[in-house]
Input
Amino acid sequence: MNIPRSSFPRIVIIGGGFAGIALAKKLRNKNVQVVLLDKHNYHTFQPLLYQVATGGLEAGSIAYPIRKVVQDYDNFYFRLAQVKEIDTETRKVTADIGDLYYDYLVIATGSKTNYFGNKEIEKNSMAMKTIPQSLNIRSLILENFEQALLTNDINERLSLMNFVIVGGGPTGVELAGALAEMKKAILPKDYPDLDVRKMEINLIQGTDKILDAMSPKASRKAEEFLSGLGVSIWKNVRVTNYDGKTVTTNSDLTFESATVIWTAGVKGAAIKG
Ligand SMILES: Cc1cc2nc3c(=O)[nH]c(=O)nc-3n(C[C@H](O)[C@H](O)[C@H](O)COP(=O)(O)OP(=O)(O)OC[C@H]3O[C@@H](n4cnc5c(N)ncnc54)[C@H](O)[C@@H]3O)c2cc1C
Output
């Protein structure tokens, strides 16, 4: 990877998210050589991805260049690299740009979307874990509305205007709220010749309350607020499949929708080895 040798021990950090950056800051100008690897050269402020997805913020507002964070650090190297494998025997990481040996390794790769093994849902739904994915959601929302204007098929139009969010945790709740605000304040102005009142936002939650990990009060307030904004909340419903047109569930409930956003869970972004 073209990193000079140093008399200090080498610490390799994989991941420039909150954890990796916090550690890099702590190690600043200490008696170690630090190599930070990330597959992006920017840090993503994930809590506001939903704002990018719904047009409230530009992508640049939540992406911060990693090189800018570490530019004054001594004996510090950043490399844009996707790590593919770790060999703990030889203390080597293998990335798309080559190999690197370490004395200490910190894996701070965060998490990725969990589809619980359902390949069809993975293929047909949208995820919201990265800036490119949020921009894809934003484009799809607007493309759907453009398409809804053009079609004479009422069922197709309703499907294009039906947004299904799977997972009533913080991400799904925030996204549902932001979509509802778009429906209220932005879309009627942008699409005056479309009946935007027909737009549906369906939030599907597998358990008996949204924001299940939070207090009963927070959950109740969120439900009241979203319902007031016109979001339909379906509790104790689990999505079993989505073929790109129809969402099926473990009950009789189905949804015809051109847009399913999957916010139903994450799993560790593990690296082979
Ligand atoms: C939509 C959304 C909203 C959220 N809202 C909140 C909130 O309001 N409050 C809150 O506290 N938390 C929130 N979170 C959770 C919070 O963002 C995460 O807990 C936090 O980002 C985890 O930090 P991390 O450093 O562990 O991982 P991440 O921030 O995910 O960083 C991991 C980094 O590793 C890099 N990486 C991964 N794999 C590799 C590889 N193989 N090679 C090289 N680089 C790699 C990635 O590019 C990334 O930069 C939200 C998350 C999402 C997705």
Observations:
- The chain has a mean pLDDT of 96.
- The pocket of flavin-adenine dinucleotide is lined by residues 14-20, 37-40, 46-47, 49-50, 82-83, 108-110, 128-129, 170-171, 269, 271 (CB under 6 Å).
